[in-house]
């Protein structure tokens, strides 16, 4: 530890002793104390789990290999403010002219080039897609271009887009669109946005504003320049000399080609023949196709590329990682699938009367929720008051719903959401309800003697219930 923080062992030990610790040279150090000791030498310590260690080592090694990478941009804004038009305008001015005769292909993202510098645009606009990816833990966007129509102003989805970008800590470049319209009023837009903390640089704020017309193709180059300027400030870097890593942007089952997916490469370089895993899908790169429909042999950082060679259709937002070989890829995918199934089974498994006692003993249950359905009001009420009268030192019995009628889907959903059991008295579940209960793992108990129902609950609470088969 002393070596790591670059201090003399004796000094480090002294500091530990000041904190009330008596470490010897070959004893592991207390983590909290270590943070304090390092801090007193002006060194910041970050505690990582052992399984993260190789990631850290990789990062250190990588920092030597880092080079600039293009920014990845998502366009957001209110409906009809011109997100799609802007994506098209950018693409038309910058892509087709360079790729003479090239067919533009929609693969979920495209790359444009300005004065030798690239920008990657994700071409599913809007904050829904952005947040859906983020909800899966993927961070793909470096810069958000917020489109606001100059003839309209800040609208509900503009505000949502601002909040989603802020939550993700992604800088916003504002494109005031439709400035070709006579009623366009860019000054008003700036004022309105300032209320939400989006302030132009000339007003002392942090945000770059550009006035554009997607329709008349005004200001497009300038917008790209400003995106590059923003990217420069951010010093976006990646190591191209390592196995590729990225995120699935889009995936589909293609009739002729099988499962295909667009991956945004985020570090490393992907090549034909590389083995990979993405979520529970694995495979080997058979073909790489770029956003102009051209077959390519390799793709580096910030490049969107369509990949053929997946075993199955992966899920958008999944992390894509290259591994040594196909066998390893399959093993990882299979292990993930098993883990996923276990997690699903655990999630679906709701409380049953049979396991109530063991759950109580494990301290997992503090309350037993019960839904009661019966044939007549009198018996429903009788069961309710008898159950509510049961006292137990650790568990409270709570009737969350009691009504006359057969057990229906709504009863099952309520029980599933509340981790409750269902008691039916002289009634049966509807077919749809029993199917749902099976799927959700909800315990339904049917009785025709009130006493039996009460006794079963009491016995279950005491751990005396005869197991059912
Ligand atoms: P989105 O819903 O944000 O993707 O908006 P669209 O790109 O579909 O544009 C909505 C409407 O605004 C369309 O009818 C476009 O033709 C129009 N539009 C987009 N950009 C401009 C512009 O710069 N000027 C004018 N006058 N109309 C525009």
Automatic annotation (TrEMBL):
Residue numbers binding GTP: 77-84, 123-127, 177-180
Entry's Gene Ontology cellular component terms: cytosol
Domain Tr-type G: 68-237
Keyword Plastid attributed: no
Subcellular location(s) per record: Cytoplasm
Keywords from the UniProt entry: Cytoplasm, GTP-binding, Initiation factor, Nucleotide-binding, Protein biosynthesis
Principal location class: cytoplasm
Similarity remark: Belongs to the TRAFAC class translation factor GTPase superfamily. Classic translation factor GTPase family. IF-2 subfamily.
Functional description taken from the UniProt entry: One of the essential components for the initiation of protein synthesis. Protects formylmethionyl-tRNA from spontaneous hydrolysis and promotes its binding to the 30S ribosomal subunits. Also involved in the hydrolysis of GTP during the formation of the 70S ribosomal complex.
UniProt protein name: Translation initiation factor IF-2
Source lineage: Bacteria, Pseudomonadati, Nitrospirota, Thermodesulfovibrionia, Thermodesulfovibrionales
């Amino acid at each position: 530890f002393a070596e790591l923080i670059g201090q003399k062992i004796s000094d480090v030990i002294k500091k530990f002793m000041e904190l009330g610790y008596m470490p010897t040279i070959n004893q592991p150090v207390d983590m909290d104390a270590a943070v304090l000791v390092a801090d007193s030498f002006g060194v910041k310590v970050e505690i990582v789990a052992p399984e993260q260690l190789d990631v850290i080592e990789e990062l250190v090694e990588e920092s030597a290999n880092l080079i600039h990478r293009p920014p990845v941009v998502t366009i957001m804004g209110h409906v009809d403010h011109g997100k799609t038009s802007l994506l098209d305008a950018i693409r038309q001015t910058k892509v087709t002219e360079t790729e003479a005769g090239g067919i533009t292909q929609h693969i979920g993202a495209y790359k444009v080039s300005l004065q030798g510098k690239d920008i990657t645009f994700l071409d599913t606009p809007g904050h829904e897609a952005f947040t859906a990816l983020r909800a899966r833990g993927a961070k793909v966007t470096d810069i958000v271009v917020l489109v606001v129509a100059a003839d309209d102003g800040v609208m509900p989805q503009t505000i949502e887009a601002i909040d989603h970008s802020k939550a993700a800590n992604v800088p916003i470049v504002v494109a005031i669109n439709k400035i070709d319209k006579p009623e366009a009023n860019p000054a008003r837009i700036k004022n309105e946005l300032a209320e939400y903390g989006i302030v132009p640089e000339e007003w002392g704020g942090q945000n770059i504003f550009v006035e554009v017309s997607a329709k008349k193709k005004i200001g497009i180059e300038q917008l790209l320049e400003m995106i590059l300027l923003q990217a420069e400030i951010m010093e976006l870097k990646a190591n191209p000399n390592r196995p590729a890593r990225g995120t699935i942007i889009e995936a589909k089952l293609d009739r002729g080609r099988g499962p295909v997916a667009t991956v945004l490469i985020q570090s490393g370089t992907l090549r034909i023949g590389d083995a990979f895993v993405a979520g529970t899908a694995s495979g080997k790169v058979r073909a790489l196709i770029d956003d102009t429909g051209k077959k390519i042999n390799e793709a580096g950082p910030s490049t969107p590329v369509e990949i053929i060679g997946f075993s199955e259709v992966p899920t958008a937002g999944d992390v894509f990682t290259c591994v040594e070989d196909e066998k390893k890829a399959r093993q990882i995918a299979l292990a993930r699938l098993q883990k996923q199934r276990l997690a699903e089974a655990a999630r679906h498994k709701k409380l049953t009367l049979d396991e109530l006692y063991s759950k109580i003993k494990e301290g997992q249950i503090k309350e037993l929720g019960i839904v009661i359905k019966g044939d007549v009001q009198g018996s429903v009420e009788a069961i309710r008051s008898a159950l509510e009268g049961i006292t137990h030192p650790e568990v409270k019995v709570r009737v969350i719903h009691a009504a006359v009628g057969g057990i229906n889907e709504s009863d099952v959903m309520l029980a599933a959401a509340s981790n409750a059991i269902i008691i039916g008295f002289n009634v049966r579940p509807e077919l749809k309800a029993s199917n749902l209960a099976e799927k959700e793992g909800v315990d339904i108990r049917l009785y025709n003697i009130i006493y039996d129902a009460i006794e079963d609950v009491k016995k279950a609470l005491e751990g005396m219930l005869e197991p059912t088969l």
